[in-house]
Amino acid sequence: MKKTLLPFTIAAFALAACGSDEDSASENTEPAEGSSAEETITYESENGPVEVPADPERIVVLSTYAGNVLHLDDDIVGVDSWSASSPNYDFGDAEEVSAENIEKIIELEPDLIIGLASEPNLDQISEIAPTVTFTYGALDYLEQHIEIGKVLNKEEEATEWVEDFKQRAAETGEEIKAEIGENATVTVIENFDKQLYVFGDNWARGTEILYQEMGLNMPEKVQEEALEPGYYTLSSEVLPDFVGDYLIVSRVADADNSFMETETYKNIPAVQNGNAFVADAEKFYFNDPITLEYQLEFFEENFLGNE
Fold first, then answer.
1. Mean pLDDT score, 263-281
2. Residue 41, phi then psi, degrees to nearest 5
3. pLDDT one-digit tens code per residue, 59-107
4. Which residues pair with 246 in a beta bridge?
């Protein structure tokens, strides 16, 4: 997530949840083969048609979707600070930008800008270059990647990856269920700003893979409190009530991790049984293809011992 998905989502999205089933009406018109940067396609955005370059060469991503764009196109010249700090991405010489710094965006001379519908200054930004925004959560995480593919005139490439990923994740899920049992439950938590959070099935941290693609089970308490809103804040004292047979800890390295040293945490059966797997939160925040590939590998290694 970015200062999204808890840092990310809580700060940037006003607690908007990812993964609704709303459809975004978006289509593009295929350009002639061998198109140049000057040629355009029409992207049907949620706010109406936008003429965008058929082959953008200077892309600014203001938030959230940098990993999606990078997976399809490396012509990124500006990116938000949270994406820039992710260990999963290599943006080369791209500079950090924000919707608040209009002058910086102008300096980068973008030919395409992508961001959230909640960004400030969108009227000014859209005057700099063709601008496409998305309402966070209006599409599920895989549909969102295909939409980014449409914007970049790479829908086929995006769709192929999505289909392949779903197949691989489902197959891995079957292997994991064979290993841990069909009825085993899995919990995903994260610590941030002296709070503990447990996640539903659409708030990054690998939850989309575990629950949606692999079909692993969520503990009943997590379903009750976190499934609909996407996450739930809890105290370390009640953590055992939410932890299933397996626990994924998305740990923020420079945060207060003292809860992991308490007797309450150490006495959780999943912890005592060696079924608690600790991930680097900075590598788990997002749910784009680059991050998803990392998360899938993490689960393969920890649940199955595949390295």
1. 97
2. -125, 160
3. 999 999 999 999 999 999 999 999 999 999 999 999 999 999 999 999 9
4. 186
Number of Cβ within a 10 Å radius of residue 231 = 27
Cβ-Cβ contacts under 8 Å for 289 (sequence gap 6 or more): 67, 68, 71, 145, 161, 165
Longest Cα–Cα distance of the chain, Å, equals: 65
DSSP string, 242-283: T--SEEEEEE-TTS--GGGGSHHHHTSHHHHTT-EEEEEGGG
Q: What is the DSSP string of 2-28?
A: -S-SSSHHHHHHTTPPS----------
pLDDT by residue (tens digit) across 246-259? Answer: 999 999 988 889 99
Question: Do 268 and 276 contact (CB within 8 A), yes or no?
Answer: yes
CA torsion, points 203, 208, 211, 212, in degrees to nearest 10?
A: 130
Which amino acid makes up residue 166?
K
Provide the β-strand partners of residue 98: none
Encoded tokens for 276: 């608690």
Q: What are phi and psi of 219, to 5 degrees?
A: -60, 150
Q: Is the dihedral of CA 265, 267, 268, 270 positive or negative?
A: positive
Model-level pTM?
A: 0.87
Residue with token string 């200054």:
121
